[in-house]
Specification:
Layout: H1 41-55, H2 57-80, H3 87-101, H4 103-113, H5 120-124, H6 132-160, H7 168-177, H8 179-203, H9 206-212, H10 217-229, H11 232-251, H12 257-276, H13 279-289
Helix pairs in contact: 1-2, 1-12, 2-12, 3-6, 3-8, 4-9, 4-12, 6-8, 7-8, 8-10, 9-10, 11-12, 12-13
Amino acid sequence: MLSNRTDPPPPDNPHAGGAIPKVVPPLPTPNPRARSLPARTAFGWLRAGWDDLRADPAPSLAYGGGVFVLSVAVVWLLLGLGLDYALFPALAGFMVVGPLVANGLYEKSRRLEQGQRTTLVRMIFMWPRSGHQALFMGVLLLGLFLLWMRAAVLIYALFFGISPFPGIEDIVPMLLLTPTGWALLLVGGAVGALFAAFAFAISVFGVPMLLQEKTDALSALGISMAMVWNNMVVMLVWGAIVFALFAASVLTAFAGLIVVFPVLGHATWHAYRAIRADDRQAGEAERMFIRPA
């Protein structure tokens, strides 16, 4: 016997007729290295560096005095060996190795954070948590410095050929008063800026990271570059401050480095701590360096 019961109609198929289902976009993932720090934060780092210098000035000023003596010795050596042509590239190359030379200043700032004092001997002979990876970082930066020196010589030869270097007395008028000199300044400045920017990005936080954390040099380089890239505005301001103060120190025959270098070294540590801070520390770091407008 046939049943009179009828089955209910199937439910409507939402994909019938070729309809494309709605796709919900993924939620944005917060970038742990982007702090959204305003540009004025860089001046807060500079103030913090000055405060660290004042907190215990003797070891910092002695450290800066050592950098001053080393700078004068390098210039004297280059001139004495007749390597006048390497003088300007060497000055620019200081920006490449500077973060590495400042390691002892980072150590002093780190100890001040912990309420401890330090000595010049401890600053000079400090040993980073990453151990020999810091030495590997030094080799990389030294290699970058030598590569820049070679590039500078090739750029000079590109514009002036193999003619002998005219000497310091004649090179400045030649650079400033001749079209060839202008072209050399333009090209050399652009190439030097690329080297300096790359070295700054990989070392400004990479070197302090090797002091504070146990990691490898290549990871520190990559993380440092990511920190700079994700905080571009404030880091551009900080880079401009570093360049301006270093240039002013050169104009004082390097004597300004006695004070400027320690302040910049201490300030770089505070910049690293502000940007590298984890989510729990980020608010405290921002309050430390950002004053109400």
